[in-house]
Structure formats: structure tokens, C-alpha cells
Amino acid sequence: MKPSAAITVPKGANLAVRCHDVVSTLGTKQVADFDQLVIIGLAVRLALHLQSASSVPYDLLKQIALHLLHIPPTVLPAVVNCLADAEYLRVDKQGQTIRAVVPTVPFFEDLFGDMGAYAGNLQMSEPEQITLAMIDRLAKSPTDRSVYFDMGAEKKLVQRMLDVGSQGGYVIEKRSRGKDILLSPVYFPENYEAFADLTAAKGGGVVSGAIEKLSRNQGWPLNLISKNSAVGDEHLSQDELTVIKAIATEGFTSPPSIKTTHSGQNFFLFTPKPGLTTITPSKRHVFEAAMALVSAVRQGQLLPEEYAIRNPVALLSALLDRKRLRANTEAFEQYKCLATLRVGRLKPAGGSWFNFELIENPDNLEAVKMAIQLVRGEQVSHAPDPEILMAFHKGQEFTDSLLGRRLLAEQEILNIDPGMQDEIDNYLLQI
């Protein structure tokens, strides 16, 4: 089938990200119309977990790929070949038999950019193009359903891809104000009804514009946004301002707040939290800590009592390098929330002066890195599963142990004592 020229497929890093998002949401479900999309998505997933690994025996790779990354053995050779073609790994062969793979995977931004460039040279089928165009649009905001039938593709095929998205879990349809609104839980994982209502009222373009401007100025104080009708240096239309106020006040997100004696209580606004394809449940607290860090820095930058923070990125980078910030008289109120979250400690330095010291552990270091990405207006990096990373580094024994633990964790009911089973059976017979 010849792809439609009217379909706008994401390019570059976005293409790799969207393939990964679709495949991650599908899980073990398979779609007959998807070919290259799946290979690219699985290649990104594997590459994320091969970063910094040394040579991996192919038998071990097959076990980890199947049981932990849900990459079937029948698909793995194509995924490995894809990564080899993209120069993300070197294949060690003996004849035609793969003995091991040697990863050369770059980190995050380069990974997605390079893989997106590689994927851009592949021929995607029309169903894949429709899906990628649809999910890329839904990443920006919920959208009126009718928009997708104006892409130039056959309407029956568009409807089928919407049905696949619904069954696959990356598209949800909500009826609001007489309109059918589509949204993706991948990018808007909370408050579906509220986002659908907001989109129906203001339009997908307005919602998208407001969220994009906020994404470039994460953690901006609500009172400054309201006062200036702007977020950062970007002007907001009245409708965009209404959208941002709604995101802050109508249950969409819970914005962090900081209360100081000189500026009162201030709320710091962020775009909707990333979905599970970006941040795993075990890392949600890390993202919360990153938002708290950004809020504290924005307080010092935009609402200081006396001395303003001139360069938030430089300050956070210094915290990452030196694990502490120099003492000042505003530190106690500014960083108190971070001490409560156990991100850092406030150390008295005489009088009203306090140092802020980072509590050095992997989660807090990751939170500072995320905070830097947020302040820069960058997308938060996709987080690989740390246990799977360890499996590639530590080998067969660790992998066997991990598989055993996860298998137990997935069991809904373990063996029941025979006597207890009899009591249960007798009770059920009396109902």
C-alpha cells in the first residue's frame, strides 16, 4: 500500500520516541499492520538497557529480552540487526551463529536522535504512518476525533488504527460538550475527563499551544503567569491563560508550592506528569523530587527577597557536581520542602544563614538531572529499568534470581495450606 503524502509522520528523535511509546504501551499485544514501527520501538527499548554494558552473551541476551523486555526470540534477530545497522552494537559471530553482542549505545538524547534518523530512512506502512502521526499529535494535547479523518488516508483505515489504539491502550475516547475527544494516557495519564472537557471547550490547538509554552518554562509561578499573561518570555492569549489556570486549579495536577515570609505562598506550574513509558512507577517519587527542586530554584530566581538566582541551570549543575550550595539567608524557606522530601539537608551556617547539602544517593542524583532537563525545557529522559540494567552487567546468576523474584511477584495466589483450602471450600458450599 502506498503511503499517503498528507500524513505528517514525526521526524528525528520524535520518531524514535513515538515508536517506543506505542510498543511499550502495547506490551505483549501484537498488531498485524505493524512491522518497522515495532522493530524500532523494541530496538530503542533494548538500547536503553544496554547502555554502558560490556559484551553480552547472546544466550543471556535472549533470556533478558524475552522475560524482562518482552522481545520474542523470533523478533530479537531483527532488533539486533537494526541496532547493528544503526551502529549501536557490534555482533560477535562464529559462522552464522551469534555468540555475543558488544554495545556502543550513546546516552538518551543522542540515542533517540540517532535512532530517529535511522528510522527516517525506513519505509513505514500506511497504518504505521497513521498511528505515528496520531500519537505524535496526541502527545501535544487531546484532540477532536474528527481531525484524524482529514489526514488524507482512507477513513476505514483511520478508524481501524483508532480501534487498534483503543485496544492497545494508547488512545482513549471521551465525549464532552457534544464532541468526541481523543487523548492518550501515555502523555496525559491522569484526569481524562477534565482534559477532554478543556479540549472540547477551548480546542486542541489552544490546549497544545498553552502546554508547549509551559513546557519551555517549567516551574513558572502561577501568580507571575496571571499578572503578566505570560510564561517566561512567551505571551499567552486569554484562552491559553485560561487553560494554564485550569491545569493549575481544577484538579489536573498538584503544583508544588513554597511559602515564604516575604512573598507568601506561591504555586509553581508544570506540564502534565509523564506517563509510564517515560517514568516507571518506581521512579515517580524521583520526578516529584525534580519538580520540587525546580520550584525551589524558580523561587530564588523569580521571587527572591534580596539576591536573585541568575542562572538556574548553573546552580543545579553545581549542586550535581559539588553536592552542596553555598549558604545564604533565604535558603531555609527556599529549600525546606527539599529537606522534607529527603532530597537534601539544611545546615546552619550562623545566624539566618543556611547551606543546602544534597543527600547523595542514586534517586536524588537522578532527580537533580531531571530538574536540569525541566529547567532547560527538555523532555525528561526515558528511564530504563535499573534491575534489567544490572542483569546485563552482572550476568546469568543475577538474571536467574531476578526472573525468580519477578515470577513470584506476578503470582496472584501462592500455594494454599490444604487445611485452609478445605475451610474455604466448606465456606463456599454454604453460600
| SS summary, helix count | 18
pLDDT < 50 runs, ≥5 residues: 1-5, 405-417, 427-431
**Distance linking N and C termini:** 59 Å
- What is the global morphology? flat
Number of strands: 14
Radius of gyration: 25 Å
- Mean pLDDT, all residues: 83
Q: State the share of residues found in helices, binned by percent.
A: 40-55%
Could you explain the architecture of this structure?
- This protein is of the alpha+beta class and 431 residues long.
- The protein folds into three domains: 12-158, no CATH class; 206-271, no CATH class; 281-381, no CATH class.
- Helix content is 52%, strand content 13%.
- It has helices at residues 13-26, 36-50, 58-67, 76-85, 108-119, 126-140, 155-168, 192-202, 204-215, 222-228, 238-249, 284-302, 312-322, 331-340, 362-376, 386-394, 396-410, 418-430, and strands at 56-57, 89-94, 97-103, 143-144, 172-176, 179-183, 220-221, 230-231, 234-235, 257-260, 264-269, 324-328, 344-348, 354-358.
- The strands form five sheets. A three-stranded antiparallel β-sheet has the order 1-3-2.
- β10 and β11 form a beta hairpin.
- It is flat.
- The model is unreliable at 1-5, 405-417 and 427-431 (pLDDT under 50).
